[in-house]
Design goal:
heterodimer, A: 155 residues, alpha+beta, 4-stranded antiparallel beta sheet, 3 helices, 9 strands, B: mainly alpha, 70% helix, globular
Amino acid sequence: MKIKLVHFIIPLFILVSCLNAHGLHLKLEKKPSCINIFSSYDGNMPVASGKVTIYYNNNRTIFQTGRTDKNGGFSFIPDKEGTWYFAIDDEMGHTKKLKIPLGHDFFKNRGEKKENRQHNPTPYYLKLFLGAFLILLLTFIIYFWKKRKEKMKDQ
Amino acid sequence: MHISDGILPAGICLISDAAAIGLVYYCGKNLKSEEIPKIGIFTAAFFIISLIHFPLAGTSIHLGLYGLAGILFRKRSIPIVFITLLFQTLIFQHGGFISIGINTLIMSSGAIIGWILYLILPLNQNIKAFLCGFFGIALPAFLVSLLFYLLNYGKGMIFLLSVYLPAAIIEGMLTYATIILLTKIKPEILK
């Protein structure tokens, strides 16, 4: 059987679809007593010892600095309502910022057992195929546009 | 190796954005229609392959195959690198929109070195392929670490380079394997 390029590309696509990428992801957990944030690369690999800065209302007044633990976790206790910002830097060129709006309810519920999980990311594989699909779509659009232009030129 | 927004000063980012747009335009102009499908398929493949990562030394490194892109597409590899980075920024939030120019310039250096080495080295084709793949990631890693060193950012030049050394070896081996395969199944692609 003659080997064609497609025999190489299809297994490659299947192989890489089983692997993971390395964006930074943040999982926010609002607990009645504190705010927990878990940072990870794609594939759930924790960002251990990432440099963290907590700001309040984006006014660059630093509320807290520190580093994530071995599991990529970091906790802090906000002291007032408003918009808080969690910024992480793995010092390898990857950064991520998370906006954490805290209303009256959060402080009202302090001491009560209430959990609020906020994280529902688009599945990774969906993003991967969406990206490849969009690139191919763009290719076909450019190709047909170019062909049409050439046809019109010939006429 | 993507540099996120907010790490570099805005001035550097804007200048490099302008330079990258100019370079992408120059290398992508006068594209023939028969080149487009090949470029599109390989761009999608490079997009996917650049999302493979390995956990190493408490961080994560990924493949790029910039050297291979340089061998296969020569100057057209720069628009390929740009489109790959653009979609990674759009879909995976890797890097950033303001820093896309500097990322394009740095990653394109890998493609350019791959292209040049493949043309000028008087060596066996397979050895050349390995070296192109190796330097295709080693050069961007060196430029990123040099930039971070000049800006006094990060964990240090030696650390960053040592992290990317295994990636460069893997890239060299992958480029070598791909060139062998392409020589057997579709040699005209290398001309």
